[in-house]
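New to this. Help decode both lines:
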Amino acid sequence: MVACSSASEGHLNVKAFREWHRQANILTEVLWNDVRRGLPPKKKKTDVPEGRLLILEGAKVEKRHQEVLKCGPKYCLEPRLSIVDKLALTRDIARSVPEKEKERCVVECVDVVAKVESLKGHVAF
């Protein structure tokens, strides 16, 4: 904010600036209130109904986990598998490939798990 005054005494400049500043604030409020009347009304937030949760095949899910799952995908995180679970998953994957490629599939999967874990700073084996 810049203000100029022709008064020679400093205290008159300060007094004039304060008056100008007060008038600028009043004018700003008047203009803002006028603009605000033309704005669309603020939408009221509606209560989000609790989500439904379908548990398949009689799986057991703890009550606290069910409450989080009912909140929706925003609150759900992917599960983190341990190294042992990742290695066990390689056998499951190998079951779905042709017999000739099973050994190669397991070796490659184990190699990937080892590399990822070593990048994290963990000892893979």
